[in-house]
Amino acid sequence: MWKYGVLIILPFAILLGGCQAAGDSPAGQVVSPTTTLPAIETSTPAVIKTDTSAAEDDHNHSQKVTSPQVAETPEDNPAVIPIPTETAGNSPTTLSSTPVAPVDLPDEWFISGVESYRQSYAISCESRSAVDWASFFDVSIYESTFQFGLARSDNPNKGYVGNVHDPWGQIPPYSYGVHAAPVADLLKEEYGLPARAVTGFTLEELKQEIASNQPVVVWVIGNMVAGTAVEYVDHEGDTALVAPYEHTVIVTGYDGQNIRYLNNSRFFQVPEEVFLRSWEVLGNMAVIYDDSLQGEY
User: Fold this and answer.
1) Which helix (H) or strand (E) covers residue 249, if one does?
2) How many angstroms separate the CA atoms of 102 and 201, rounded?
3) What is the 3-state secondary structure (H, E, C) of 53-97?
4) Domain at 2-293, CATH homologous superfamily
5) What's the gap between Cα 130 and its chain centre?
6) Would you write out the chain's pLDDT as a tens digit for each of its 297 residues?
7) What pTM, to 2 d.p., does this model score?
8) Where are the chain's structural domains?
9) Angstrom distance (rounded) from CA 194 to CA 180
10) Is the peptide bond before 173 cis (omega within 30 degrees of 0)?
């Protein structure tokens, strides 16, 4: 009978790499979201150090991770990771992808200096990702300040839905989280960052951002698993695409086959097809750093 118990538990173990936990592997390892793998070595691996600063209560028992150096790459033969089975303001930023002229991309790029902490609340992944992303651009924000500064709504395209302490994995009208537009609005209007919310973003556009040394916050499912989106109609009659176990991570690098990202203070690496399968559920949604917005706020 034990083998049936394993089959039942495994899908939940995959999802738990998302909002509430990122696994028990030490930071500095690049691991599959479905399997604990040996460390992928670099000439200067990610560094983990205990944060002893008392400046922010949110971080009192957290750890800080610094990404690998830009020029350093994972081993030539990274572990093969199978594709998982399915287991706001009043004027939000327009959710549309900005056309990007084709450019020659480097074969691989890994951003250094990205720091990440574990989120402070059950469903505050978007706020944690946002403040870690802002920190890379030298803007310091408390996670709690950002979280409770978000617009509130029953539509995640307009504001945060629900109670940040409620269980992860629900969809509106129950506690859910927030999508890219309200996050970008707050980063831009309150903190002066040229943040743009996009949907329909392509893998090539994502790589252009990374190769420009600009990490990207993306909306995925769990710790990079598949999912199914549904349409939700809010009390004003507007429709939003939502999905159980909606989650955010920060993409920090790529090579010819894989995408590397930070999730709740740990690095993970998955094949491009695994990443795309999860990212596409909510329409390839992201927050990017857009220099063209400088001076518009």
Assistant:
1) strand 246-254
2) 14
3) CCCCHHHCCCEEEECCCCCCCCCCCCCCCCCCCCCCCCCCCCCCC
4) Cysteine proteinases (3.90.70.10)
5) 9
6) 444 444 444 344 445 566 654 333 333 445 555 433 333 333 333 333 333 333 344 433 334 444 433 333 333 333 333 333 333 333 344 444 444 445 689 999 999 999 999 999 999 999 999 999 999 999 999 999 999 999 999 999 999 999 999 999 999 999 999 999 999 999 999 999 999 999 999 999 999 999 999 999 999 999 999 999 999 999 999 999 999 999 999 999 999 899 999 999 999 999 999 999 999 999 999 999 998 887 665
7) 0.73
8) 2-293
9) 14
10) yes
For 71, 144, 187, 199, 225, the CA distances from 290, given in Å and listed in that order, are 24, 25, 12, 14, 28
Residue 124 is which amino acid? S
Residue identified by tokens 């009192």 is 60
Amino acid identity of residue 161, one-letter, is: V
CA angle 45, 49, 53 (to 5 degrees): 150
Tell me the two tokens of residue 127: 């706020």
